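Figure 2 data, in text form.
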Amino acid sequence: MFQKSDNRAKGLFLIFTTAIILPVSFLTITFLGSCRKDLYFNDPDAMLKFSVDTLFFDTIFTTLGSTTQSFTVHNPYSSPLKISSIDLAGGNQSFFRLNIDGEPGTHFSDLDLLAGDSLYIFVEVTIDPQNNNNPVYIHDSVTFEINGNRQDIDLVAWGQDVHLLDGEIIATQTWNDDKPYLIVHSMLVDTLQTLTILPGTRVYLHNNSTVYVSGTLEVLGTYDAPVQFSGDRLEQMYEDIPGQWGGIYLLNGSKNNRIEHAVIKNGIYGIHLGNLYSNDPPPDLVISNTVIMHMNFAGISTIGATIRGGNLLIADCGFYNLVLTTGGDYTFYHCTLANYWAWSNRTTPALLLTNYYNIDDTALIVGDLVRADFGNVIIYGNKDQEMERSSDPSAEYNYTFDHCLLKVKDGYDLSDTSRFREVFANYDPGFINPQDYDFHPDSLAFIIDRGSPVFGNAWPLDLDGNSRTGDAAPDLGAFERTDTITLLK
């Protein structure tokens, strides 16, 4: 009797609890579903916050894609938001491209954005050739819809048509300033051919690209319209970053090269002259009124070449401003070699002068240093020793420093007056702001009126076009102190 009664009680309990639990479970599910619908912040005035209101792209060369830029979309509320749609207004016809969470597209819908969270949107742009020498304005927008509200971010770029050279060997031709020249995968001026570059021409080089010259290079800029060589990254952040392209390489056999009024910046090296194991004569170059700066390796480097240089600013290079090896024949007057390199720990001097080339300590190639004359030159920087000389006794080694300011270690031997004539050792030159690449003399600079009139009369105008002959004596270096300063960068 007891067993049967107990089983009956258990059955009645199960029926009772089931009757209670099922409605409660149903109510719980219904309640949670209702909460899920209310989970999102549905205020009709809800607005997204953006990191920018306009996304700008610097000038983009046609046919080449841009770098990737991004902006963020932020949920400022304490509840999740559902973004109904994100659209590229121009759709498939747009020059711009979107990528959200790794997915490319022009339309995205029903994106959840958690409370206080942000979403990254990546944007690229490629602009087709416009058959227009002037930059072309390109515009689109990204639109957002949330709770019935629409917001947008503008996309703005400038497209520039270019003369494109891709690994080409060129014959005699002339470049002008109608539109920039873009060099991809390097180029070569062929033997016995001449490339002439006229005032105001802009030459941009892609990563690791180099201008090789077997023939002749004539760069004919003017003070008002210098010729520019630089990398093809035009964003503001790349303005002074070195190593963006190779350099200008004058090969043995190249001759009658000339560079006037040029700005060469942000490469691995500015200009290199000469190569080993060649039966052709080393190259020659006349270079004046030129700025070379922000090079990974050297501003100018040589292997037994010939250079006539004046009014040069060579600044901030990772190893050397000027490295002259394996002999050669050089004159440099009214030049500023200033090295305040800050990208890494530089252990080499601004100037290295040798009559040999040491190949990995296994082979020594020697050449006569016929002449290396420096007049009214500044060699200075942030190292204790900014000039080094080294020679092999089997070859000629001739040089002079006349009215020059040199940065050398204490005790460095400058006593040979046949080589060091009126030399100023370790005086701060008095640049206005070398950290901002302003190497003009300030009003109390030591270098004012310290130069020789002989070299000043030979170069009567400085790099800014100011007279050197109107006061007691010319200043040392490429710039004469005046009340009006022009900053070259």
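Caption note: DSSP finds two helices and 36 strands in the chain.
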